[in-house]
Amino acid sequence: xxxxxxxxxxxxxxxxxxxxxxxxxxxxxxxxxxxxxxxxxxxxxxxxxxxxxxxxxxxxxxxxxxxxxxxxxxxxxxxxxxxxxxxxxxxxxxxxxxxxxxxxxxxxxxxxxxxxxxxxxxxxxxxxxxxxxxxxxxxxxxxxxxxxxx
Length: 150
Hints:
By secondary structure, this protein is an all-alpha fold. It has one domain. It contains five helices and no strands. It starts with 7 loop residues before the first helix and ends with a helix. The model has no long low-confidence stretch (mean pLDDT about 90). This is ABZJ_00895 family protein. It comes from Alkalimonas collagenimarina. Keywords: Membrane, Transmembrane, Transmembrane helix.
């Protein structure tokens, strides 16, 4: 299959499925066992989902993604992770914190300027993009080398 024929959306959907599943399982376990994971769980979910999508890409196509594919995969998975996380927040907040939590959260958003929230989102986005680029680049090449030589 040539590089032009690769359906990048397929692998973004694979990533999205793993990301949503991992997020559900980890949040249920954390809530059930009353564990405060902080943001460490988000990075673990991102890495695990990225690895799953990258390995599927390598196994199905017999090669690592090209530079263009790597950029598209990283951007698509980044967008997907933000959307799934936002949906997760919309579901989890009323369940865990109750209906009154929305007022508290809106007050929290008002304490910082919109520029600060944008800066925070950009920093997190850049970090996630860097991690995804490493996964679809270096890790996928390493896995492809092992798969081809085996």
